[in-house]
Design goal:
Helices cover 79% and strands 0% of the residues. By secondary structure, the protein is mainly α. The relative contact order is 0.15. The model has no long low-confidence stretch (mean pLDDT 87).
């Protein structure tokens, strides 16, 4: 479960990008 944290942060960043990009 060590890589799980890294994958979660990348997934969260990707989700944030999808939410912010259309607003710009």
């Amino acid at each position: 479960m060590r890589a799980s944290k890294g994958t979660f942060s990348v997934l969260l960043l990707f989700l944030l990008l999808i939410l912010i990009l259309p607003s710009l």
